[in-house]
Amino acid sequence: PEEVVFDLDLIVETGDGSTRLLRSPSIELAGEAELRMLCDAATSGGGGVQIDTFLLRARGSVPHWEPPATPLGDPDPAGALKTHRDAYWPGGFKSTPVYDYEKLQSGNVVGGPAIIESDSTTYVLPAGGSLTVDEYRNGIIQVA
Which pTM was predicted? Predict the structure, then answer.
């Protein structure tokens, strides 16, 4: 928290009806003198302003998050096989293995033709294609 930098910007409407964005010299406006200084900056030395919006911005740095990696294991995806299902491929229907993506492990390689199902999507791998699960559990698809 002590490394966070705050900026206060004000969107003001001047007496002539124009709107301006002002950067406050501090995030706490203490007293009439500081308010008068902002008014003078907004109106080039004369007139009043109406503050429409206060914009408080906080800036700071955070450590970069590194996703956890898992060691690459056996390429055999048999532990994720759910079933076989007839699916239509060029040339007609063919019994096709169906895998559960959530059960695939880092290092598994699924060769096509295959279907891989997850809660959010379905991957359809044609013959000659493959899906490889990397150390971050990303599915990398290659199609011949």
Answer: 0.59
